[in-house]
Amino acid sequence: MFRSGLVALLFASVSPNAWAGAPAVSAAIATGLVAHRAVYDLELKDASDRSGIAAMYGRMVYEFDGSYCQGFTTSFRFVTQIDTGDSVRVSDQQTKTFENLKDGKFTFDTKSFTDEQLDKEVNGAAQDQPDGVKVDLKQPASRELQLAESRFPTEHMLDVIQHAKDGKRFFEARVFDGSDDGDKSLATTTIVGKQETPLVEEADAGNAGAFSKTAFWPVTIAYFNESAKSDALPVYRMSFKLYENGITRDLTMDYGDFVLTGKLAKLELLDRKAEVCK
After folding, report:
1. 111 vs 138: CA distance, rounded Å
2. Residue 78: strand pairing partners
3. Which of 46, 202, 229, 237 has the fewest CB atoms within 10 Å around its CB?
4. CA–CA dist 178, 78 (Å, integer)
5. Which Pfam families match (predicted)?
6. CA angle, corner 30, sides to 133 and 4, nearest 5?
7. Exposed, middle or buried by CB within 10 Å (0-12, 13-18, 19+), for 28?
8. Which residues, other chains included, contact 17 with Cβ-Cβ below 8 Å and sequence gap of 6+?
């Protein structure tokens, strides 16, 4: 799943120990994640005058592969054309991550371009430790950081699926995904709706291929700054329909000043060799 890596709700305050009881990663659930490449068509749903955006559209490609034994890789590309009324620019974000669930390791590399010119690169590695997460940041500046205990993106996705299967509708967690400048984790609140089956009129349900008639959970994740006060608004909020195998569709990405929708345009399942963990 991406955030990178997403309702109108009275968000509860995030207590310091809210994520202390996060469920352990389930190898069985992790093994059930499907290697796939998903393409989403993006459109502007809403924008405030403050955003300065007159129109916006684009495409997002998300590729997820790997295994519990060898680790999971994610490649993510997010390209948008932004019309401000006075000018048009193309934004291109490219992210690659690797997550080893067994060893608690996570590496990340993000390049951001505007009109094909590199604006920023963020890369480094993070490691779970008994007292939190150690981050070895290489770009934009080389330094070592010690952060509070956090979940990595695939870990958090597995937590969402586990809570959904258990019928738990709300939980909190701290997540580190290497986004922004790669130097902080974010507090999150996740709301999981009751499992549903796709409706005929859902625009992108048919593009889910073999899963087009499979049940899903509606999920909303809100991300808050690490130091946010209990009544603060989220910096980012994402809603999507989640299948048990990790595939998502019907995205809504709320950045505060503007909101994008992402409809699943194409889904390709990737071959993955069976393996036995040693």
Report:
1. 13
2. 60, 93
3. 229
4. 16
5. EipB_like
6. 55
7. exposed
8. none
The residue type at 153:
P
- In whole angstroms, what is the distance from residue 219 CA to residue 208 CA? 17
- Under a CB-based contact definition with an 8 Å cutoff, are residues 263 and 204 in contact? yes
Encoding tokens for residue 276?
Answer: 């036995």
pTM here is 0.85
What would the pLDDT profile of 7-61 be if each residue is shown by its tens digit? 222 222 233 233 333 444 556 677 789 999 999 999 999 999 999 999 999 999 9
Q: Which two tokens stand for residue 153?
A: 């993106």
**Across all residues in the chain, what is the average pLDDT?**
86
The tokens 């959904």 sit on which residue? 164
Residues 80-94 have pLDDT tens digits of 999 999 999 999 999
Reported as a single tens digit per residue, the pLDDT across 171-210 is: 999 999 998 899 999 999 999 999 998 876 677 888 888 8
